[in-house]
TrEMBL record:
GO terms for molecular function: interleukin-17 receptor activity. Residues 71-460 form the Interleukin-17 receptor C/E N-terminal domain. It comes from Anas platyrhynchos platyrhynchos. Pfam families: IL17_R_N, SEFIR. This is Interleukin 17 receptor C. It comes from the Eukaryota. Its main location: membrane. It is a single-pass membrane protein; Single-pass type I membrane protein. Residues 515-677 form the SEFIR domain. The chain crosses the membrane at residues 469-489. GO terms for cellular component: plasma membrane.
Length: 703
């Protein structure tokens, strides 16, 4: 084959420049393909860019450039993403043909046939971190080419590798005079490309498998490639957000993770992904229909009522979203059935406060959390130490109807057939209650937005009940007067009857009407002694409030606010405040002595605090007895309050100086003296009760 002359060869030189943002150098796996009618070969996969000489005149030109995603594979599932470049070539106007300069034929060019043009293609790449060039030689036939531009064929280079999801900038040009530059930007496919998910190891998402055990849940990360870094995330899924970052665990390859059963909730979700840019993630929420997980969620749910001063509001604290609704209801007394208020329920939305805007406050109002037809949580304003009004009646006026009915026992009874006491003439109170509603003596709890809604009123009934009770008391007093008149006829019989009456009253309830606040430390021996004292004094008529404790009141207020409220109430009412000294209580009391050097209020302490002394010991937020001392010691030192100190003589040898201003008794030996002080009077009928109190205390203390 005859090669073209030097001039023809120079004019046929073609430069193809492809600039890509890739970080590595070429490999022998690069491939080159030409369309039919063109011939090409890869001269070098890594050459110096920008040193190609310019051609002497017109030659081959670039028509268009297109980049396509591709895979470069070393095995069936060991591929890496790349981009391949497709370019279409054409003949520039005035391009010389082989044989046009026949006198300039050299022996070295006699191997190629005439009427062909050949050129050198240069593929180069550049990025912010590296550059790469590839040289290609192309032969193009020019036989029967008419004057002007004519498309010849296409060249495909495969391919330029780059990281998943990175962007490549591609540029192409020739070395002919007046050459045209082509430029294009393309992003390398990420793991959302289906072909990459099958063949690229970084895009193969592991599988999550969950096994439920008796005490824990086993989470298995399966089908993970060994040596690659994975992240396992456990989080609570919420409709209003992801619920924070959750807990993350790092792993290299397959792994097992154990989760305690108490942390398994319906909204717990698992997510695993490969540590690359924008990875695919496998997500699993396996406990959304688990009954045990729902029970654990309800056990961790808290309902709190808020008194905003104008309307009833509440908030729910729960780790997950709750498919539930808030239902306001009416309960006249603690433990009584709660009558749902019609048309006022609303769904639970998020964790923040929710307000029943038009519902006026009343002590008998409660809020229920209902889910699946069950009452899961209920909180009443009475639980927040607000006294209920058991005599108030809840009335309803249905929408578009002026008649009133009384809401009770799950239904609405018309006033025409309603009586307050369940007996008497039906309709007796209808007119009076209608007048109370009309004159504003009843509190309107709910005012509808339109005429079709229901209206609710809370009407006090004590004035009507008081009238009936007055008649009953008048009859009772008249009967008692008749009996006394008959007894006066026999004076001796009357004296005997009065003595028996006094003895019976003294023996049955000598402490009736009295109230005591019992303060003790949170340790077993103190709690047993406190329970024994309360169990012995309550049948005698005394109301005993033990702290720590408090029941639903302390749960709603918090331990320390409830304790301060009870202490203030006892001081105002003149109730007895008994401080029970056990080993832990004695240690807390002696800290007052060592902290200040003198008992507050004692002569050596002075009338005002000495700034040279240390501060009064602060009560720990978790120590209810220390907080009780912080309330009691200043009042006791000032001579106020009705305080009594009782020490467990088996464990406490003496009363600390800070509490010696109050009368002190050793238990159980001085239980009789303590009982007489609580009774406030000498009563021979207390002797059997004193011995019973000693026996009960000895049994509680194990003596």
């Amino acid at each position: 084959m005859e090669r073209p002359g030097p001039a023809t060869h120079t004019l046929g030189l073609l430069l193809l420049v492809v600039a890509v943002a890739t970080g590595g150098h070429g490999t022998p796996r690069d491939t080159l393909a030409c369309s039919q009618g063109l011939a090409c070969r890869l001269l070098d996969a890594d050459v110096l860019c920008g040193t190609e000489p310019a051609g002497p005149g017109p030659g081959l030109a670039l028509v268009w450039l297109r980049l396509e995603p591709a895979l470069r594979c070393a095995g069936p599932a060991a591929c890496s993403p790349c981009l391949q470049a497709r370019l279409r070539l054409a003949v520039e106007p005035g391009a010389p043909r082989d044989g046009d300069n026949a006198g300039d034929v050299s022996p070295s060019t006699t191997t190629l046939p005439p009427h062909n043009v050949s050129g050198l293609l240069l593929l180069s790449s550049h990025s912010y971190a590296s550059s790469r060039c590839v040289a290609v030689e192309v032969w193009a036939p020019l036989t029967s080419v008419p004057p002007g531009r004519r498309r010849l064929g296409s060249v495909r280079f495969r391919c330029f590798e780059a990281p998943l999801g990175s962007e490549l900038h591609v540029t192409a040009h020739t070395n002919a005079r007046g050459r045209r530059w082509l430029s294009q930007k393309q992003r390398v496919p990420d793991c959302s490309w289906p072909d990459a998910q099958v063949a690229v190891p970084q895009c193969q998402v592991p599988r999550l498998q969950v096994s439920l055990g008796p005490e824990a849940v086993l989470v298995e990360v399966q089908a993970a490639a060994v040596g690659l870094n994975y992240t396992l995330r456990l989080y609570h899924n919420h409709s209003h957000g992801a619920g924070g970052s959750g807990r993350t665990v790092m792993a290299s390859g397959p792994m097992n993770y154990s989760l305690p059963l108490e942390e398994v909730l319906p909204c717990l979700c698992l997510q695993v992904w490969l540590e690359i840019q924008d990875p695919l993630r496998a997500t699993l929420c396996p406990f959304s229909h688990d009954a045990a997980a729902w029970e654990r969620l309800w056990a961790q749910t808290r309902l709190v009522l808020h008194d905003t001063g104008q309307a009833l509001a509440c908030s729910i604290s729960a780790p997950c979203d709750l498919p539930a609704e808030l239902v306001p209801c009416w309960s006249p007394a603690p433990g009584a059935p709660c009558q749902a208020l019609p048309d006022l329920q609303q769904p639970v939305t998020g964790q923040g406060p929710q307000e029943f805007r038009a519902l006026q406050l009343h002590p008998n109002l409660c809020v229920q959390v209902r889910s699946g037809g069950q009452v899961r949580r209920m909180q009443c304003l009475q639980d927040r130490a607000l006294p209920g009004r058991g005599d108030d009646l809840l009335l309803m006026a249905p929408g578009g109807n002026a008649s009133l009915c009384a809401l009770e026992r799950g239904g609405c009874t018309p006033l025409a057939s309603f009586t307050a006491t369940g007996s008497g003439r039906p309709g007796l109170l209808e007119q009076q209650l209608q007048e109370d509603v009309a004159t504003g003596q009843c509190l309107q709890l709910w005012r509808p937005d339109n005429s079709s809604g229901v209206a609710l009123w809370a009407c006090p009934m004590h004035k009507y009940l008081r009238t009936r009770w007055a008649l009953a008391w008048m009859g009772l007093l008249l009967g008692a007067a008749c009996i006394l008149l008959l007894l006066l006829l026999k004076k001796e019989d009357l004296k005997g009857w009065l003595k028996s009456l006094r003895a019976g009253y003294g023996n049955e309830a000598p402490l009736r009407g009295r109230r005591m606040l019992l303060l003790h430390a949170a340790e077993p021996v103190a709690e047993r002694a406190a329970c024994a004292l309360a169990a012995a004094l309550r049948p005698l008529g005394m109301t005993v409030v033990a702290a720590p404790g408090g029941g639903t009141g302390a749960a709603a207020w918090g331990t320390l606010p409830w304790l301060h409220a009870q202490h203030r109430r006892a001081l105002r009412a003149g109730d007895t405040i008994l401080i029970l000294l056990s080993p832990a209580a004695e240690a807390a009391a002696r800290r007052w002595d060592t902290a200040d050097g003198a008992v507050p209020g004692s002569p050596e302490a002075g009338s005002t605090p000495d700034p040279r002394h240390g501060p009064v010991p602060a009560a720990s937020p978790c120590d209810a007895f220390a907080a009780a001392l912080s309330c009691a010691v200043p009042v006791l030192a000032a001579g106020g309050g009705r305080y009594v100190v009782a020490r467990l003589e088996a464990t406490v040898a003496a009363v600390p100086p800070v509490l010696r201003a109050a009368p002190a008794f050793a238990l159980p030996s001085q239980a009789g003296r303590l009982l007489r002080v609580l009774a406030g009077r000498r009563n021979p009928g207390l002797r059997p009760l004193e011995e019973a109190l000693r026996r009960r205390l000895r049994g509680a203390l194990g003596e």
